[in-house]
Amino acid sequence: MSARILVVDDDTALAEMIGIVLRSEGFEPSFCADGALALDAFRQNKPDLVLLDLMLPGRDGIEVCTLIRAESGTPVIMLTAKSDTTDVVKGLESGADDYMVKPFNPKELVARIRTRLRPSAAASETLQVGDLVVDAAGHEVRRGEERINLTPLEFDLLLALASKPQQVFTREMLLEQVWGYHYKADTRLVNVHVQRLRAKVEHDPDNPRIVMTVRGVGYRAGAAN
Hints:
Elements: E1 4-8, H1 12-24, E2 28-32, H2 35-45, E3 49-53, H3 61-69, E4 76-80, H4 85-93, E5 98-101, H5 106-117, E6 126-129, E7 132-135, E8 140-143, E9 146-148, H6 152-163, E10 169-170, H7 171-179, H8 188-201, E11 211-214, E12 218-221
Helix pairs in contact: 2-3, 6-7, 6-8
């Protein structure tokens, strides 16, 4: 079955171009041009991934992404005409998995979509990180009886660290392993998603024990309890 992609963008010409590219790659696109209608379109179409413009009429992309995240972990790639740091970070903090600055290369867009839709590397093991149990096969994280809800990307990030507890990962290594970047990219992606992950898995996000910072290098998994 072809993956369903919801395109939320009020630029008709761009949305049309994206639709042509997606169909040629075997995806099934649907469209929404108004931020105020985006959540309804999301619920109705039940997409496998959302391409979400930052600047929209009705509601902006940051608000739409926040609303989607409140009820779903569906991958979201933010489309932005601004490379402005504040807007990019706000988009990521609202729950976007990745972002692309317009104008973008259609092949690059497809590559990013395929990476986000790619299932995690099949692993049958159960891993321990801090007081968490990470069930790789079941895509589940638990602290005792409590199940912690992570987006697929947050799960992949935690799994990457937990799989190699002795290894310190640079941001570039995580970008390649989790996001599929094979070239120099924006390491803010990693920083923001580490913050989001910590907010969900740490007892005290300001004093992390699960996702540890190695100053000047990157991140590593905390020791199992």
